[in-house]
UniProtKB/TrEMBL annotation:
SUPFAM superfamilies per the UniProt record, alphabetical: Bifunctional inhibitor/lipid-transfer protein/seed storage 2S albumin (SSF47699)
Family matches, as PANTHER family: BIFUNCTIONAL INHIBITOR/LIPID-TRANSFER PROTEIN/SEED STORAGE 2S ALBUMIN SUPERFAMILY PROTEIN, NON-SPECIFIC LIPID TRANSFER PROTEIN GPI-ANCHORED 25
CDD domains: AAI_LTSS
Domain Bifunctional inhibitor/plant lipid transfer protein/seed storage helical stretches: 31-118
One Pfam family hit: LTP_2
Record protein name field: Bifunctional inhibitor/plant lipid transfer protein/seed storage helical domain-containing protein
Keywords from the named record: Signal
Organism this protein belongs to: Eucalyptus grandis (Flooded gum)
Keyword set includes Signal: yes
Length: 143
């Protein structure tokens, strides 16, 4: 009798999963995080932190114009060839954990009167962030 009880319990445990109704499908996986910025951009983005009061979305937009320290940092980044790191902030505006104002972010070079003195035909022409973002970064595709 004990053997038949053991067999019954064993078969019940074996067949129980087959008798249960099908479970609901698993929820879709969460969206993957934004791709990381290329090496060197983390420091560059930190360098541009004086711009945050201007380029942050409300209620964090504490400045109505680009602060002088922001423009100095942007100018340094342009001379260093690292301003293209801003492109990641344009594409992934929540990368910092809070939203950024893309209009102000894109207009930052002109708001800071950043000029392009590279070629004489365009000498002193205002640099647009969109044109800077078309530059290749560290051998990767255009951003």
């Amino acid at each position: 009798m004990a053997a038949s009880t053991a067999v019954t319990v064993f078969l019940s445990l074996l067949l129980f999963p087959l008798l249960r109704p099908a479970a609901a499908p698993a929820p879709p996986p969460p969206p993957s995080p934004a791709p990381p910025a290329p090496d060197g951009c983390a420091g560059q983005i930190v360098l541009l932190s004086p711009c945050l009061p201007y380029v942050s979305s409300p209620p964090n937009d504490l400045a109505s114009s680009a602060p002088p320290l922001c423009c100095a940092a942007l100018s340094f980044a342009r001379r260093s060839g690292l301003v293209s790191c801003l492109c990641y902030l344009v594409r992934e505006r929540a990368m910092l954990g809070f939203p950024l104002n893309s209009t102000r972010l894109r207009s930052l070079p002109s708001d800071c009167s950043l000029t392009d003195a590279a070629d004489s035909p365009r000498r002193n022409a205002t640099v647009e962030l969109d044109s800077l973002c078309s530059v290749r970064i560290s051998g990767s595709a255009s951003v």
